[in-house]
Design goal:
By secondary structure, this protein is of the alpha/beta class. The chain contains 13 helices and 16 strands. It has a domain of about 130 residues: Response regulator (Rossmann fold).
């Protein structure tokens, strides 16, 4: 009887020790849940988002972590579905004690995660969702955006095209909220800022569209000089490759959001040469911070499928590091403290000086625009040359146009 009691007591002590050790380990980490498509058509995009953030996590942990704690990244598959992402984010907060949320792909998912962050009072960082209203009329103080919006890109391209001769634009985008925002913001800005601009056509194709033939025929017939597109992934590749096969060639060019992708560009090849890309990050940005980043990345990943960072590998890293610097400035993981620290904060980043605008939590930064060159200095396929940097004040959406009452004195 005494033996059984002793065994029972020892078992209880063992369980208590496991619990205490587990709590101690948990106290030594800060958990971040990152949600992006890790399956399906856009899996590669999600994989690279996680990869870029993980590199930021690894570098930060190697340097001592955040406020003495190691960062633990918890990847979850959003499946590009708002309800799935929200459910997994809530579970990570409740069960894994995640204190921060990150995400890149899909405006609908972004809105769902904004709601989760608001209700649970945790910080959500938008690494890639670009619809203006997320930091505009739908603003939440718990959400911060570290990428461009469709309004920022429209302004960057408008400033760029002011110095170019082309005035006939055809808008070809994906048929969902983001694609329509790409077209609407560009039309609004460029027709106001550049006299003589004509929108000679406008079309929208479903995400994952395989046959762009009918749209390309209309582009060819329109007399367009520039095809303006926010298509990403296979959609931008298929548009350009099929366009070349059907007769779209120089001097007709594409002005793109996402033609900086080392998955699509090898397949797009020479058909992309002469076209343009505006991105939240380009590896051809000429700053000392970016050059050092390229060296560190290449040293670690030179034998992988992504020997140099581009597209969301770069801007997910840059966004994560901005968040980490805000936490360091706050000297706390508390959401309210991080909000106070991050609002108005300046940071010398990969792209140069950037600022987190206080009223709408929208990143302010220069706008890189690169022209696709036949021979790249870093890749064995056509890629953007040295980026032209559109000044921050020219890229910024004016306060009165944000739709956010905090920026216009309404709150």
């Amino acid at each position: 009887m005494m033996l059984l009691k002793w065994k029972g007591l020892m078992g209880l002590i063992f369980l208590v020790m496991i619990f205490v050790v587990g709590q101690a380990l948990a106290a030594d980490t800060v958990n971040i849940v990152i949600l992006d498509p890790l399956s399906g058509t856009m899996k590669d995009v999600g994989d690279r988002t996680v990869w870029g953030v993980q590199f930021a996590v690894d570098e930060t942990n190697a340097a001592g972590g955040l406020l003495g704690k190691q960062i633990k990244l918890i990847p979850e598959d959003s499946q590009m579905k708002a309800d799935v992402a929200a459910r997994k984010a809530i579970r990570a907060i409740m069960e894994d004690k995640a204190q921060f949320i990150m995400h890149l792909t899909s405006t609908a998912v972004a809105q769902a995660l904004m709601d989760v962050a608001e209700k649970n009072k945790v910080i959500y960082t938008m690494l890639g969702a670009e619809s203006d209203f997320l930091t505009g009329k739908n603003f939440s103080k718990y959400s911060f955006r570290t990428c461009f919006t469709t309004g920022n890109r429209a302004r960057a391209y408008t400033e760029f095209f002011k110095t170019k001769p082309w005035r006939k634009f055809y808008l070809m985008n994906q048929d969902y909220a983001f694609g329509h925002a790409v077209a609407d913001d560009f039309k609004k800005v460029i027709t106001k800022e550049i006299p003589g601009v004509k929108i000679v056509g406008e079309d929208y194709a479903p995400i994952g569209n395989k046959d762009f033939g009918p749209y390309i025929s209309k582009i060819l017939a329109s007399g367009a000089e520039i095809v303006f597109t926010g298509n990403y992934g296979a959609d931008v590749q298929n548009l350009i490759v099929q366009g070349a096969q059907m007769g779209i060639k120089l001097p007709v060019r594409y002005a793109t959001y996402f033609l900086d992708d080392d998955v699509q560009l090898p397949q797009t090849g020479q058909a992309a040469v002469g076209s343009f890309v505006n991105s939240t990050y380009l590896p051809t940005i000429n700053t000392s911070q970016n050059k050092a980043f390229l060296e560190r990345w290449h040293k670690k990943f030179k034998d992988t499928t992504h020997p140099y960072p581009c597209a969301n590998l770069g801007y997910s890293y840059n966004g994560a590091m901005f968040l980490f610097e805000a936490i360091k400035k706050a000297k706390s993981f508390d959401a309210e403290a991080v909000i106070r620290a991050w609002e108005g904060m300046e940071y010398n980043s990969l792209v140069g000086k950037q600022i987190m605008r206080a009223c709408d939590h929208q990143i302010m930064m220069p706008g890189p625009v690169g022209e696709i060159q036949a021979k790249s200095t870093i890749f064995p396929f056509p890629f953007a040359g040295t980026a032209v940097m559109i000044p921050m004040d020219k890229v910024a959406v004016p306060l009165r146009e944000t739709g956010n009452p905090r920026c216009t004195g309404g709150m």
